[in-house]
Amino acid sequence: MRAFDYAAEVISEDEIRSRVSELGNAISADYEGRNPVFVSVLTGSVLFSADLLRQVQVPGEIDFLALNRFGESGRISLSMDTSGPLFDRDVIIVEEIVDTGLTLNVLRQMMIDRGASSVATVGLLDKTRRRVTDVPIEYRGFEVGDEFLVGYGLDWEGLYRNLPSLWAILDIEAFVEDRLTLARDLF
Ligand code: 5GP
Ligand code: MG
After folding, report:
1. CB distance 123 to ligand 1 below 6 Å
2. Which residues form the domain of 19?
């Protein structure tokens, strides 16, 4: 795996591919005969959603929503809503990473309030140690540490979402000073 002083690759493209395929298989088995709607939380989960959906072998639908977060308070609001109703649907929330769990908690409650017949979550990455609220993740890809991650949908100031693997930032200062730090060495 590649590494620099300020950032190191932590989950390779191959590892992601094989774990995403396992998650897709698990979901396919559990939802056999059903028609779930995958609700992808923009923007971070776009790459994961696209890869996951290709590994799902039941007739799934995809919808999107986007959130505004207000600092560390846990308050969030919708900046874009799903295009279809979720009433009576089997909803699977697709998150690239669960950190404090505050966002996911609010989202799950929102789906229940809208009358979803079931709500489950698929989270590619789980920062278990940073959790401040207990929230179930029915399908979990990888447990990760506290480091700030970029790649595979995760950004630093909008950059690095297009990296096919996951990288941990080791020196935040270097990125604060210059957000292109890693880009210069990779591209
Ligand atoms: P939380 O679980 O704290 O409510 O929020 C999770 C959100 O915080 C994620 O959807 C993501 O946008 C952001 N986040 C948490 N950890 C990381 C990380 O390591 N890297 C990046 N780029 N975003 C993160
Ligand atoms: Mg997210």
Report:
1. no
2. 14-145
Question: Can you give 39-54 as a three-state secondary structure string?
Answer: EEEECCCHHHHHHHHC
Closest ligand to C-alpha of residue 107 is 1
Q: What are the average pLDDT values for consecutive 10-residue runs of the chain, which has 187 residues?
A: 97 98 98 98 97 98 93 82 97 97 94 98 97 95 97 98 98 98 96
pTM flag (> 0.70): yes
We report the CATH number of the domain holding residue 119 as 3.40.50.2020
SS3 percent helix, strand, coil of the chain, rounded to 5, is 30, 35, 40
Residue 78 forms part of a structural domain: yes
Instruction: Determine the distance separating the centroid of ligand 2 and the alpha carbon of 45, expressed in angstroms.
Output: 6
Pocket test for ligand 1, best of 99, 106, 107, 155 (most atoms within 8 A of CB): 99
User: What is the phi/psi pair of residue 149, to 5°?
Assistant: -105, 150
On the CB side of 72, CA atoms within 13 Å amount to 5
Q: Is 150 in the pocket of ligand 1 (CB under 6 A)?
A: yes
CB-ligand 1 contact for 90 (6 Å cutoff): no
